[in-house]
Amino acid sequence: MRVGDRREIPELREVSDPLALRALAHPVRIALIEALSLQGPMTATEAGEMVGESPTTCSFHLRQLAKYGVVEEAGRGKGRARPWKMTSIGMRISAGGGDPEAELAAVALTRLFRDRQLARYRRWIESRSTYPKRWQDAVGDSEYLFHLTVEELEALNGELSALLLPRFRERLTDPASRPAGSVPVEMLVFSYLIAPPPPEP
Question: Cys staple from 44: which of 19, 80, 119, 132, with CB 3.0 to 4.6 Å?
Fold first, then answer.
């Protein structure tokens, strides 16, 4: 955040309510979330041009996203001419509490997001040779295998978030803070078990 700028940058929004999880698990709504996250505030008409849907369709889905607190009106304009913006820099999908309904909804929503992200990654692999050599070399593609306790895994993920989010999050909400020559770069960081944990004592 720039010195003297007292605006708060919204943090990740935790979504765990089964109704909200199910409401978000819609391809058009996910596309709108991605568009607003990438481009910032836009009208239903502008969003429609970006995601390939009609302004009427986008307007309906934006209102549904607003109902669950994911987006909000960005001021000025009426009807389809009013811009919408994200209420946070992203979401953390959670199904805590052992609720089977919430768990199923969280799995469905996570799968939709990841399928879209991995499709973008596949497009990058297929088209990377068309990009400048320096950008090709700068992109990372790594895989690591660790043996960790649950405490170490919690700490590692916390450290990664603490390193990445504060450094670049202002650029998500303030286009003026993006340096010349910067482009959107998506970084996916997965950590998951490939074997069951030992029984708890």
Answer: 80
